[in-house]
Amino acid sequence: MTVGVLLLAAGRGRRFGRDKRLAQLKPGLTLLDATLGRLGATGLPILVCLAADDRPLQDAMTSRGLHSALCEHSGTGMGSTLADGMDRAPDWDGVLVALADMPWIEPCTYLAVADALTRNVICVPTREGRRGHPVGFGRSFFSSLRSLHGDQGGRLVIDANRDCVRELPLADRGIHRDVDTPNDLAAGRTWSP
Asked: What's the rounded Cα separation, in Å, for the pair 150 and 109?
């Protein structure tokens, strides 16, 4: 089963106050680069979903050998970005929906979620009973993902298919940690999973 990753990286971070994707997690390492580094270590194919006007960032992805897509409707919310990304994704059997502002997820977590997928399964990692990211969707849910719009993301598909959800308990604390504010970024610089 071929599983790929849609990395949702179209948001600029209104709560952050500037483009958080390019904020420095460590000297010389942006938040986006840190997430891409973790994903790259998995060997899974990746499609980076960018905002419609992110041509310079798309060029940077291309120069690094990464595939990306400018998502025409990204300005209306995460659901629209996800739908646009699904329209541009290769012919995968399963997809992991990952978020660019979650650079602490371990590569083995992505692989565990990918390995747990089947055509008719939605796989959600958990830690201490709490759901996290990335979420994996088997091929049966692709049409539902393509029909998302606005800010209604993958959670809508999960809620509509509860009987198909497989929770995968993991030890990775990174599945719950993201960056919404500059304080989150500062705390993350010293955080140790």
From this structure: 28
The count of C-alpha atoms lying within 13 angstroms of the C-alpha of 44, restricted to the half-sphere facing its C-beta, is 32
Residue 14: pLDDT over 80: no
Count CA atoms closer than 13 A to 94's CA, side-chain side.
24
The span from the CA of 113 to the CA of 96, in Å, is 8
Any domain includes 90: yes
pTM above 0.90, yes or no: yes
CA neighbor of 11 nearest in space, from 95, 80, 103: 80
Task: Give the domain CATH number at 149.
Answer: 3.90.550.10
pLDDT in tens, 44-89: 999 999 999 999 999 999 999 999 999 999 989 999 999 999 999 9
How far is residue 8's CA from residue 40's CA, in Å, rounded to a whole number?
15
Q: For residue 193, is it within any domain?
A: no
Q: Which of 48, 138, 39 is nearest to 93 (CA)?
A: 138
